[in-house]
Amino acid sequence: MPLKEFIPENIWNNMPNKYCTVQQAFNNPMSVQLQTATRYCPRHLLSQFLTTNGTKDTWIWCPTANGIFSTKYVRSLLAPANSQQWTVLWSPHIPLKWSVLLWHLILNSIPVDETVKEKGVPLTSKCSCCPQPQEESTLHLFFRSDTANQVWLELSHLLHFSNKEVSAVTDGVMDFLVRPKIIATTGCLVRCTFMAALWEIWCSRNKARFQDQKMTAKHIINRTMLSIRAICISFKFKKVPQPWLAALHQTENGKENLKSITPSIVRWIMPPSGRLKLNVDGAFMMTTGRAGGGGILRDHEGNMCWAFAQAYHDLNSSLAAEAMALNDGLSICYSKGVSEILVETDSLNLLQLVTKQISSQWDLTCIMHDIAAKTLNLKAEIVHAPREANRVADCLASSSMSCPRLVIWSSWADLPTTVKDPYHLDKVGDPSIKS
Ligand SMILES: [Zn+2]
């Protein structure tokens, strides 16, 4: 609040030069404004919040870390706590159409017969989901019909969900979504499957209604599991639990395989003759906060020109470690006069940052700026390589935690023991298995 609030009205009315900046009022210890303030305003306010360091007065929006006002932040302050639950609907793993459908479900705006009737359109309702048709409501179609019963029964061992317990659609859907996640992958799969099943029920109903195709639970379940397989593959879910693997394989029709569990063979590819390749990698341990990076420059025969490793401090993400390692690698190239290099990183995020496909976090702005300048200067070409094809840099990064200062090796014989093996394997073109 303004300091004026603490000053009695008659004093305020008689005060000269009221409309001045904080700087003007507080720079002179004898100013009438400062004298009045110290007399009437709480001391801690003056000592804690007022500084006069010669800069211009600015507005600070305290709730944010950067002090910048945004209407978005005000909205989050004003929104009731439960509206945060909407966030469970949206996730990069979840196709937008599923999220939108569930959003409509929660708002009760899916155009089933009952909802259409409620809007004043007269019609005779006959559901498409049961042998003995009943009136079609959202609750009936998604949770009560014969088809829905079969779908949820079939999925109950995966979802631990009983459609019979749903008495109102909005609450039923919301309750399911805000259930605490058990473990990351399972929680995600459970939520995705629930949403996919609802989506397929809706699609199946529309096909029955408008294209005269029969609604069957089997078809709905198959399509649901196919979508989940696609999500597992495209987001490379690790450690898919056994019941899920079994369910996903059951629906397999022989054409596709779960790529995440099919091993493939990758190897480090030597650069073309006359060019050099730099492989870099960062390491970051969330638990201890320790971080480091390393890299190696090799010629077209896989011979090492040099390698480096260095521990980093005060980083907060593996992405930051990856960026630092890339920057260090480029710096060394620069200092040694090497240019037109090929660069490989196994961090897709970093590559997307470098190629500006995604925008930079504010705390990485400086280093990304540095990297961009060096890349241009060195005419470096940065590409992505699978982690298994980047194993020397990976080992260098892991060993970097014990290198408090930058270490550069110029002979392979001096490399740490853990790095020599993968170095030799790369040199003879030995492949590794990518699972
Ligand atoms: Zn029905």
UniProtKB/TrEMBL annotation:
- Classification via Gene3D superfamilies: Ribonuclease H-like superfamily/Ribonuclease H (3.30.420.10)
Which Gene Ontology terms cover its molecular function?
Answer: nucleic acid binding; RNA-DNA hybrid ribonuclease activity
Domain RNase H type-1 residue range list: 279-399
Give start and end of each Reverse transcriptase zinc-binding domain.
81-152
**Do you know which InterPro entries this protein is assigned to?**
RNase_H-like, RNase_H-like_dom_plant, RNaseH-like_sf, RNaseH_domain, RNaseH_sf, RVT-Znf
Q: Which PANTHER family would you find in this protein's record?
A: OS05G0353850 PROTEIN, POLYNUCLEOTIDYL TRANSFERASE, RIBONUCLEASE H-LIKE SUPERFAMILY PROTEIN
- What name does the UniProt record give this protein? RNase H type-1 domain-containing protein
Organism equals Colocasia esculenta (Wild taro)
Lineage of the organism: Eukaryota, Viridiplantae, Streptophyta, Embryophyta, Tracheophyta
